[in-house]
Amino acid sequence: MARTDFSSAKQRRSQREARHRKQSQPGASGSQPQTMGATAEQAQATKRKRQPSSEAAPAKRRNETSSLPAKKTAAKETQRAFKGKAQKVFSRKKTSASASERNQEQKACVKTSSLFKNNPEIPELHRPVVKQVQEKVFSSDAFHELDLHPHLISTINTVLNISNMTSVQKQSIPVLLEGRDALVRSQTGSGKTLAYCIPVVQSLQAMKTKIQRGDGPYALVLVPTRELALQSFDTFQKLLKPFTWIVPGVLMGGEKRKSEKARLRKGINILISTPGRLVDHIKSTKNIHFNRIRWLVLDEADRILDLGFEKTITVILNAINAESQERQNVLLSATLTEGVTRLADISLHNPVSISVPDESLCQFDLEDRDIFEDCDLQTSEELDGFAIPEGLEQYVALVPSKLRLVSLAAFLLQKCQFETDQKVIVFFSSCELVEFHYHLFLQTLLSGSGAPAPGQPPSACTLLRFLRLHGNMDQEERTAVFQEFSRARTGVLFCTDVAARGLDLPQVTWIVQYNAPSSPAEYIHRIGRTARIGCHGSSLLVLAPSEAEYVNSLASHKINVSEIKMEDILSVLTRDDCFKGNQWGSQKSQAVGPQEIRERATVLQTVFEDYVHSSEGTVSWAKRALQSFIRAYATYPRELKHIFHIRLLHLGHVAKSFGLRDAPKNLSVSTVKKRKASVKRPDLRKKTPRRRLAEMLQSEYSSGLEAGVAKVKKLKKPGAPGGQPHSAV
Ligand SMILES: Nc1ncnc2c1ncn2[C@@H]1O[C@H](COP(=O)(O)OP(=O)(O)OP(=O)(O)O)[C@@H](O)[C@H]1O
């Protein structure tokens, strides 16, 4: 991307700001350093903001501008007009106003916004360039070279449409066919699912005594999420086409327990389940037996443990061990952590350890060799390094809190409006944040008509397509969204980490991490939703300037990111006249370059703020989302606390990224702590942050049977403006 030079406007800007400072009272959002801990200053700042000031002015003046025909509906009008084209906001009905009045109004409308004032300086990013571990995805060996049933080979070739093995398949399948246990680690999107599905099917179809449906499970596959369970189930179904007597089945919660029991009674030979749901059945269903189990597969093993399913896994292992001792065990993940070694100790017998990364393929940017040699991280060989797909380009953008929302919107507009076939996943740290951004963008960025106006080029307004996926949605809707996004050629999926693991969503081109992940492993899995199986893809991590050090933390795990400048992201707004704030005949804005970008970003922010402030319900909805952000922010693990600490957040600025004009008065560190304690999470404070995070996240992956789990009902969406707040993450 081309960089934008902001220096030319600097002088004009500082003169203008000096003028405003003179005219205005101090204390608007951002004029004082206002941190989460500073409740008193915060309250005062909020109070001051109610008085006319340069920062509070836009809202007031916006109303003034719209006061001619419809003062009370200014917010609605702004929103509606934006949907059609923003210039209508500053209505042409005001033809009677004099040119100078109009001029003043123009300035008032957009040029005095606080969006670009008092932001922290964006530090120079001296990104350390480190050697990334890379794997060769494909091998030159074909499936027909393996000793597999000919019908299985032809199914792989014709139904799955693949002929050559990937590296991990080449290494794992022969080992598993020999009957050995295995611990398999290989990069995201490298074909680990088939690496275990093929040996399972080969061995079960070859059993001397033909399998009967009523025999019950011969293979048990445990996965952390329901979507992943469906995906594995789908792969088994395809591979089993020639072997119709072997029945696969899935237990994953969200479905009525009664119907799952009925399916278990009929018989499932390859049982795929989430751990929580399986334990529910072990405890309550008589028709579940493990006496014939020959295979136990733990896919995304480290995630299963991260989520605090250790006890659950122990219950399952004990239940299986009580009935059957002779079986093969397989543990797989792209990132194997300490916990997995522990799990491997208790579940694997004399395993073969398969790890694909090929150090000879380590890469680094030659142009940056000097930086690399100077950097302390060259000693990071001892540190953990995760393999990253070769076709994946990783970026980071440092964005001040106030500008986060418009930057995200601009980025998505860029992808959907000016580039073709872009499929984007945006990760957030909680269900509430997903719901908030999904509804906000849906309400403000989408065209009501769905079609471009006659004679107009299609704009983002008509090309955007938003979906969302998180653990508080009911299963039916989750599955529908998963399938819809899988099939879609373009679109934007807002999600939590429920979608970070294992999901194979074809042709995803961009991953955006709007909230930073809580661990490098999570980072790897999130970005691993793109550039799968040898394809290309890109990722963008959005950090606040105070979080810039996170780039070093990633580098210590051999993760390289390049910088994209925020101004470059925002510059897309100049390409769409939707964001022109003042369009009255010949009175066009003279602003060009950086100033124009600022004006347009301000128009966009105004649209968000107007929507959020259009009713009390939407304001409290935005406040709840802000609170959820802060709660999630408080759960970063200890080792990242020096980077992500709520005390480093500027509440007034963060509030802007939720479309709130003022920092909520009743939010402070202590309130957040109190509210955290009031959420039904007993003994939280006694637990480590990691454990706490695990508990919060577990709601994403729950069995679906627990009482009190908030569900998104189709007709009543709690995340929508005015709806009920969600439970935990
Ligand atoms: N040998 C192969 N040739 C071509 N495509 C393949 C091959 N094996 C698997 N695939 C395809 O590659 C994609 C990714 O596979 P899979 O989901 O198993 O990856 P993974 O390693 O489990 O990823 P993650 O770590 O993210 O879970 C799937 O669409 C799958 O159909």
UniProtKB/TrEMBL annotation:
<keyword id="KW-0067">ATP-binding</keyword>
<keyword id="KW-0547">Nucleotide-binding</keyword>
<dbReference type="GO" id="GO:0016787">
    <property type="term" value="F:hydrolase activity"/>
</dbReference>
<dbReference type="Pfam" id="PF13959">
    <property type="entry name" value="CTE_SPB4"/>
</dbReference>
<dbReference type="GO" id="GO:0003723">
    <property type="term" value="F:RNA binding"/>
</dbReference>
<comment type="similarity">
    <text>Belongs to the DEAD box helicase family. DDX31/DBP7 subfamily.</text>
</comment>
<dbReference type="Pfam" id="PF00270">
    <property type="entry name" value="DEAD"/>
</dbReference>
<feature type="domain" description="DEAD-box RNA helicase Q">
    <location>
        <begin position="141"/>
        <end position="170"/>
    </location>
</feature>
<feature type="short sequence motif" description="Q motif">
    <location>
        <begin position="141"/>
        <end position="170"/>
    </location>
</feature>
<keyword id="KW-0539">Nucleus</keyword>
<dbReference type="InterPro" id="IPR027417">
    <property type="entry name" value="P-loop_NTPase"/>
</dbReference>
<keyword id="KW-0413">Isomerase</keyword>
<dbReference type="InterPro" id="IPR014014">
    <property type="entry name" value="RNA_helicase_DEAD_Q_motif"/>
</dbReference>
<dbReference type="GO" id="GO:0005524">
    <property type="term" value="F:ATP binding"/>
</dbReference>
<protein>
    <recommendedName>
        <fullName>ATP-dependent RNA helicase</fullName>
        <ecNumber>3.6.4.13</ecNumber>
    </recommendedName>
</protein>
<feature type="compositionally biased region" description="Basic residues">
    <location>
        <begin position="10"/>
        <end position="23"/>
    </location>
</feature>
<keyword id="KW-0694">RNA-binding</keyword>
<dbReference type="Pfam" id="PF00271">
    <property type="entry name" value="Helicase_C"/>
</dbReference>
<feature type="compositionally biased region" description="Basic residues">
    <location>
        <begin position="82"/>
        <end position="95"/>
    </location>
</feature>
<dbReference type="InterPro" id="IPR025313">
    <property type="entry name" value="SPB4-like_CTE"/>
</dbReference>
<dbReference type="InterPro" id="IPR011545">
    <property type="entry name" value="DEAD/DEAH_box_helicase_dom"/>
</dbReference>
<dbReference type="GO" id="GO:0003724">
    <property type="term" value="F:RNA helicase activity"/>
</dbReference>
<feature type="region of interest" description="Disordered">
    <location>
        <begin position="1"/>
        <end position="108"/>
    </location>
</feature>
<feature type="domain" description="Helicase C-terminal">
    <location>
        <begin position="391"/>
        <end position="570"/>
    </location>
</feature>
<keyword id="KW-0347">Helicase</keyword>
<comment type="function">
    <text>May have DNA helicase activity and RNA helicase activity. Probably have ssDNA and RNA dependent ATPase activity. Plays a role in ribosome biogenesis and TP53/p53 regulation through its interaction with NPM1.</text>
</comment>
<dbReference type="GO" id="GO:0005730">
    <property type="term" value="C:nucleolus"/>
</dbReference>
<dbReference type="InterPro" id="IPR014001">
    <property type="entry name" value="Helicase_ATP-bd"/>
</dbReference>
<feature type="compositionally biased region" description="Low complexity">
    <location>
        <begin position="24"/>
        <end position="34"/>
    </location>
</feature>
<feature type="compositionally biased region" description="Polar residues">
    <location>
        <begin position="35"/>
        <end position="45"/>
    </location>
</feature>
<dbReference type="InterPro" id="IPR001650">
    <property type="entry name" value="Helicase_C-like"/>
</dbReference>
<comment type="function">
    <text>RNA helicase.</text>
</comment>
<feature type="domain" description="Helicase ATP-binding">
    <location>
        <begin position="173"/>
        <end position="354"/>
    </location>
</feature>
<dbReference type="InterPro" id="IPR000629">
    <property type="entry name" value="RNA-helicase_DEAD-box_CS"/>
</dbReference>
<keyword id="KW-0378">Hydrolase</keyword>
